[in-house]
Design a protein that fits this description.
5 strands; binds flavin-adenine dinucleotide; 5-stranded parallel sheet; 20 helices; 475 residues
Length: 475
């Protein structure tokens, strides 16, 4: 009897999991699964403690679901990738593993780890890996010249054309193995990582994720285009934490969307297409990261932008991190992030733009801070989002496009519902004055327990333009 080992990583689900499915295809094989936590690696990349807690909570569910199907999941913890490989190799020898199955991760350290693991196992264990975390594998959507697209819209067009050439159907969960269910032996120990709560908004488990997906595609997606930019409305799916650690797959998203909206690909004005467009942005940034691995090293895509003379000012950075800039929409956004680990996309754009273009602080400081807080932290999407906002990325906002944080607030939170939720100290300020509360306080001769703006937007804008222009001239 052959022994098959599934190495779970960023794919914490049993349905539509390519590696797990392939490992279970032979009904006579003994199937085992492992998960190796590497807190040292997480620390290096400043993964948010709440994301580690979310991984842990989801692991418990996967372990139970696998045990119900007769597959034991062993969770091991070691500091870094080198130790993880040592442990994996020893475990394969101990369990006499014949074949290892895993889903690929595309970040450079993870790719290197997998190459090393395969090298160490060669000759003893057959290794099979799969592209599972994307609708289309990296490298499959290219220009006529065989290159990665650098502009999103033609990428999307080519992506949609290629979609029909790939099998993107969702795979079922594996059937129970012959011996039937197993008791769960040892639950994964708490990670050697700062502890944190996840909050009730994001219950663990693929059933919770699938339920959210079903409701969103059935009841909300039609209104996506009208609602997606308003943070006071729950108009987006909030599925990113599940997608980031693979509790949900993009195929499951696409197939559910298509089941509810069969014309999604034909009707580009629909909410369904609008949502698919966001899933394709996710693909775009991952495909880019594979084509340009320097992005994993936080290099700017547009090289001259590395010459921008960023301001080194810890007090300003701290005010931004704490939601104390005096710009209500930015502060409400940052407090939402700090409290919940999730932030609305419009607010990610506004707060990132504020850090870079109003405070002139290096986008990488913001990228790191987001990573340290986000429940949905994902290197490619986070880097892509930051490079977009900072105008350093491919197909990014041009450097002279600078969001005005006051008018962004007026436009996207006109009644201040979102701002008041996160800044209760502004509860009494009328709607018309909410986005510039210090003016109202002045008129009313009142003192607000809320900071004055830490920079003057008009002045900051001019300084940023000058800094980018100097960098462009190579000064
Ligand atoms: P929906 O609007 O419902 O979209 C569905 C899914 O599409 C999302 O769950 C996500 O997986 C994907 N998606 C949506 N927008 C984008 C986008 N612009 N780029 C890439 N994928 C997208 N997303 C992350 O998943 N992790 C991050 O670390 C991350 N960091 C970001 C940093 C900045 C500065 C910016 C501007 C954006 C960032 N995003 C990130 C993208 C986006 O903000 C979130 O994916 C989105 O807000 C998640 O909410 P949702 O699940 O309701 O999205």
């Amino acid at each position: 009897m052959a022994t098959h080992l599934v190495w779970l990583r960023n794919d914490l689900r049993i349905t539509d999991n390519k590696a797990l499915h392939a490992a279970c295809c032979d009904p006579t094989a003994r199937v085992l699964a492992v998960f190796i936590a590497t807190p040292g690696q997480w620390r290096q990349h400043q993964m948010a403690p709440r994301q580690a807690a979310f991984i842990h909570a989801n692991l418990l569910q996967v372990q139970q679901a696998l045990a119900d199907r007769g597959i034991p999941l062993v969770c091991h913890q070691c500091d870094d990738f080198a130790a993880a490989i040592d442990w994996l190799v020893a475990y394969c020898a101990q369990e006499r593993v014949d074949a290892l199955f895993y889903n690929r991760q595309h970040e450079i350290n993870e790719l290197r780890r997998d190459r090393q693991a395969e090298r160490r196992l060669s000759g003893q264990v057959i290794c099979q890996s799969f592209d599972d975390s994307l609708l289309l594998p990296p490298g499959s959507v290219q220009t006529g010249g065989g290159e990665m697209y650098k502009i999103y819209t033609p990428f999307r067009k080519a992506f949609i054309q290629r979609l029909s050439e790939f099998d993107v159907s969702s795979l079922p969960a594996p059937k129970p193995r012959e011996g039937g269910a197993l008791p769960v032996s040892a639950a994964p120990a708490a990670f050697d990582y700062p502890s944190a709560g996840v909050g009730a908004d994001f219950p663990a488990g693929e059933e919770a994720a699938l339920q959210r997906l079903r409701v969103f595609c059935r009841e909300q997606v039609q209104d996506y285009l009208q609602q997606r930019d308003f943070p006071a409305i729950a108009g987006t799916s909030s599925l990113s934490p599940y997608l980031a650690i693979g509790v949900l797959s993009p195929r499951q998203c696409f197939n559910r969307l298509r089941a509810e909206c069969p014309q999604v690909l034909e009707n580009s004005d629909s909410g369904a297409f609008g949502w698919l467009n966001e899933l394709i942005w996710r693909e775009f940034y991952r495909h880019l990261m594979v084509a340009y691995p320097a992005l994993c090293r936080h290099r700017p895509f547009i090289e001259w932008t590395d010459k921008v003379r960023w301001r080194d000012n810890d007090a300003l950075l701290l005010a931004w991190q704490q939601g104390a800039t005096g710009y209500p929409i930015v502060d409400a956004a940052m407090r939402q992030l700090n409290k919940t680990g999730w932030m609305h996309n419009r607010l990610r754009m506004i707060s990132a733009s504020f850090l870079v273009k109003d405070l002139l602080i290096d986008w990488r400081a913001g990228e790191r801070y987001f990573m340290s807080q986000l429940l949905d932290g994902d290197l490619a999407a986070n880097n892509g989002g930051w490079q977009w906002a900072a105008s350093t990325g491919t197909d990014a906002a041009p450097y002279f496009r600078i969001f005005n944080p006051t008018t962004q607030g007026e436009r996207f939170d006109p009644q201040g519902t979102f701002i008041r939720k996160w800044l209760p100290e502004l509860a009494d300020v009328p709607d018309n004055d909410l986005h510039q509360p210090y003016r109202w306080a002045e008129k009313q001769q009142r003192t607000l327990d809320y900071p004055l703006p830490i920079v003057d937007h008009k002045q900051a804008r001019l300084e940023t333009l000058a800094a980018f222009e100097a960098a462009r001239r190579g000064e």
